[in-house]
């Protein structure tokens, strides 16, 4: 059991409390999702449970915290680690050893466990990392590193497992694999606590929801009851599952009677059965890719190969025989499983990685012949890990940095505009490295567009964002299309892909499997399965019920309305 009584906490550098008078009891064996908007105090709450706060993070803490009957403040984190396993939001800080097997088994070795290798390999196999056991950590993709951090915690078999955004950088296949593994641990009696923005996974796997807002706990409820509170959740920056939002909207419009809303696709199918005959059914047609009008090519990749050498001097292919042309006006989503080569493709585009063979041209000019300054005048690039974007001691200075360096006269005016546009005014004097994950993401986007690039590259732009902020980012991307000609995004966020992209590139093991509009890509089930892609709930639901794809809740409701009211 986890008990917090009248707990408050303020960081040493802040005059405002991050948590105020928290009290909650979480029963042993619960599977709890902590939700709330960015900056609500979710990560701070979790760091109290294993003594990271206040042992390693200074601040003023009051109240009582007990985990499994033990007073947390009376035990050192090294002792608590056997009871409470924790996977950080900034998970790369947990990776300590050069090789995968060494890193995952690090804690077992420190405790003198003789069967460390066998125990560790069992965990690596469960997380689909066993084939990488002898690889070096720096060779892994961001998602694979996230899985490795989880492996390093699971080997200790803690009674309580806390994960801060466990699927933030994972492809849909591995995200589901993570939750299936957590479900197994839950059935074994473990207490699982996740900070999660993806409410579809919450509805499918969790049994309770803890809702945080304005530095406090608003409520702690069973998942079915919690996700019914659609208006309260959306007001707090949390969007329930698409199927729940759909049910709520149908009730509001008189298309369904009031009652319990579905929280999973499995529940949504019988819920919508009475409407099935009324759902607008148009003749199913095989989607054909429209031939786009002739537009200027802004990026061109010809026979590009990228590889790196392992320590044993053997080459490891990352991208193979890539041929690709990006046109002015494209809104491109690059999707695929972890390690597919998405981030590497973006890094080659800005010259951070150099291909082994082939040519990359930026508006007819070879990338490798251009200076970094010349490239950055045209292309803006936002990293997968946003903390790498911060070099000054405040967000305001970071946004202004590149403009000041280029001698842009009105940089102060533009800095103010970007602070407003990305909802950063209240954070302008904060060090970017000390912000929450979602706040870091917004700030890094503002830095990325500061020079008004013609082409913008974004690596996982919605990772770690609550759904309200994700929607705001999507709207911002739409607005930026007026000034930024071309946008390329590497992402696992299929809802963003469905609602925003005009072109989808599917990658797998360094090869482009498909390149086309969403109407073609989302209907190719064999392709999606091969690439480990899971389409959004509303797309799945509309396919099963009518065969005509809806890409948003609004589109689905419109389809129902075309069939008439009950």
From TrEMBL:
This is Energy-coupling factor ABC transporter ATP-binding protein. One of its GO terms (cellular component) is ATP-binding cassette (ABC) transporter complex. Keywords: ATP-binding, Cell membrane, Membrane, Nucleotide-binding, Translocase, Transport. SUPFAM superfamilies: P-loop containing nucleoside triphosphate hydrolases. It is a peripheral membrane protein. It comes from the Bacteria. Belongs to the ABC transporter superfamily. NCBIfam families: PRK13648.1 (NF010167). One of its GO terms (molecular function) is ATP hydrolysis activity. Residues 2-239, 301-534 form the ABC transporter domain. It holds the Pfam family ABC_tran. PROSITE patterns: ABC_TRANSPORTER_1, ABC_TRANSPORTER_2. It is found in: Cell membrane.
């Amino acid at each position: 059991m986890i008990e917090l009584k009248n707990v408050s906490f303020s960081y040493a550098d802040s005059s405002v409390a991050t948590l105020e008078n928290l009290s909650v009891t979480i029963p042993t064996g619960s599977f709890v999702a902590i939700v709330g908007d960015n900056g609500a105090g979710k990560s701070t709450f979790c760091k109290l449970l294993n003594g990271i706060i206040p042992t390693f993070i200074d601040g003023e803490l009051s109240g009582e915290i007990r985990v499994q009957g033990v007073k947390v403040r009376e035990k050192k984190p090294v002792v608590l680690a056997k009871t409470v396993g924790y996977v950080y939001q900034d998970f790369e800080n947990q990776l300590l050893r050069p090789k995968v097997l060494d890193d995952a088994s690090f804690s077992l070795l420190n405790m003198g466990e003789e069967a460390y290798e066998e125990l560790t390999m069992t965990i690596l196999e469960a997380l689909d990392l066993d084939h990488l056991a002898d690889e070096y950590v720096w060779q892994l993709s961001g998602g694979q590193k996230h899985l490795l951090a989880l492996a390093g915690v699971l080997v200790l078999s803690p009674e309580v497992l806390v994960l801060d955004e466990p699927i933030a950088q994972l492809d849909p296949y591995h995200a589901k694999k993570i939750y299936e593994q957590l479900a197994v641990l839950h059935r074994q009696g473990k207490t699982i606590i996740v900070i999660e923005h993806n409410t579809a996974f919450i509805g499918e796997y969790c049994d309770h929801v803890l809702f945080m807002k304005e530095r406090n706990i608003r409520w702690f409820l069973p998942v079915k009851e919690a996700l019914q509170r659609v208006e309260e959740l959306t007001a707090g920056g949390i969007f329930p599952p698409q199927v729940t939002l759909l049910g709520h909207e149908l009730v509001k419009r008189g298309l369904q009677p009031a009652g319990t809303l579905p929280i999973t696709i499995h529940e949504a199918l019988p819920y919508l059965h009475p409407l099935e005959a009324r759902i607008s059914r148009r003749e199913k047609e095989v989607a054909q890719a429209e031939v786009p009008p002739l537009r200027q090519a802004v990026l061109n990749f010809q026979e590009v190969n990228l590889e790196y050498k392992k320590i044993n001097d053997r080459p490891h292919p990352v991208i193979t025989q890539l041929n690709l042309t990006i046109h002015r006006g494209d809104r491109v989503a690059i999707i695929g499983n972890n390690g597919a080569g998405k981030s590497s493709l973006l890094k080659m585009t800005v010259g951070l990685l150099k291909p082994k063979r082939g040519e990359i041209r930026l508006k007819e000019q070879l990338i490798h012949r251009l200076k970094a300054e010349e490239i950055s005048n045209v292309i803006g690039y936002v990293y997968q890990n946003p903390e790498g974007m911060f070099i000054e001691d405040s967000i305001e200075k970071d946004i202004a940095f590149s403009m000041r360096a280029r001698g842009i006269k009105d940089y102060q005016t533009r800095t103010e505009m970007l602070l407003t546009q990305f909802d950063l005014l209240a954070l302008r004097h904060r060090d970017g490295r000390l912000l929450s994950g979602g706040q870091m993401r917004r700030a890094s986007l503002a830095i990325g567009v500061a020079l008004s690039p013609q082409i913008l590259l974004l690596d996982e732009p919605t990772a770690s964002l609550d759904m309200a902020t994700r929607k705001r980012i999507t709207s911002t991307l739409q607005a930026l299309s007026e000034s930024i000609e071309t946008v390329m995004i590497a992402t696992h966020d299929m809802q963003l892909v469905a609602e925003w992209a005009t072109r989808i590139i599917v990658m797998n093991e360094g090869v482009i499997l498909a390149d086309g509009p969403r109407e073609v890509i989302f209907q190719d089930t064999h392709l999606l399965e091969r690439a480990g892609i899971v389409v959004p709930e509303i797309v799945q639901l509309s396919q099963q019920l009518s065969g005509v794809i809806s890409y948003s809740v609004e589109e689905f409701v419109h389809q129902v309305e075309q069939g008439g009211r009950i």
